Structure formats: structure tokens, C-alpha cells
């Protein structure tokens, strides 16, 4: 059986259309990161880790810096799902330590070190999105900047003013006493 040029062209078009449908069905990476930022806000990650991820005091205790973490993506996902035993980091996975073992442990095995339950559970896609946001915008970054602050809060936010670099002023005269 010989194939005609029309048959080959039709096959290419069908293949191209299938590829376009597959790509259209997948959320863009930036969309996932934007969803992750919203989850970071709505799940109250900012309550302990702060908007910039440097951590500090919060209702759950002294949160670790997400900027300095050396955890892998998979380890961060497990931490969001399962919380951190013996700390105030809550678990966000429905059934954690019960129908879903965490760190290989059940509620009975962890007993007194059981982390608190989050105010709301997250779906697996939300957990992955918030972790992707942390990896893209927080993990491994230096000190927070004005641009990062306005990207988080919006350019109209007054909270970001503390991150503005003071304008360079003219040389300040040295008024110290001379010997």
C-alpha cells in the first residue's frame, strides 16, 4: 500500500492537533506558581514563615527559613502534607497519620509529637503548587527585596516601603573632632 502525500499531510495535522490539545490541557507553569502563591497566602503559611519565607515567630512557634532550607521538592511536599512532628508546623493532608502514614509513622506511633492539624486541608495539586511557588520565589533567595515584596503584595502596598533602597545622598561632611 502506498501512501499519498495527502495521507501524510493529514497524519501530520492530526498529530499536531493532538499535541496542541495536550498542551492546552496542562496548566502553564506560571499559572501553577500563581496558584501556589495564593495557597501560600490562604493556607496561612505567611503566619509563621512570613511573606518572604525567612520564618520567625508565629502562632506555630519559631518557623524555619524557607529561603535557607536544603529540603528537596519531595521533602517539602511531605512537610506540607505531614507537618513537622514535635513542632508547631501543621499537617495539611486529610487523614495524615491515620489513613495516610507520614514519615512512615501512624498517629499511635507518634503520640505526643503529633503535629497540629491545619485550619484547612489542601488537595495534592494545591500542595504541589505551593511547593513550586516556594521553590521558584523563595528557596535559595537572599534577603527579601522591594521587587519581591511588590510582587507578593502589589505595587500599591505600603508594607514594602521598608525594602526600598534609600536614595544615594551627597557626601556627608565628617563633623567628627579632629586631633
Description:
The protein is mostly helical. It has seven helices and two strands; from the N terminus they run αααββαααα. A hairpin with a 2-residue loop joins strand 1 and strand 2. Helix 2 crosses helix 6. The longest helix has 21 residues. The protein starts with a helix and ends in a 26-residue tail after the last helix. About 11% of the residues have low confidence.
Strand order of the largest sheet: 1-2
Please tell me what the overall shape is. Answer: globular
How many discrete domains?
1
Structural class: mainly alpha
CATH fold-level topology? Cytochrome Bc1 Complex, Chain D, domain 2
Q: Please state the average pLDDT score.
A: 83
Q: What is the CA-based Rg, rounded?
A: 24 Å
**CATH architecture level-2 label:** Orthogonal Bundle
Would you report the number of β strands?
Answer: 2
Please write the CATH class name. Answer: Mainly Alpha
- Percent strand equals under 5%
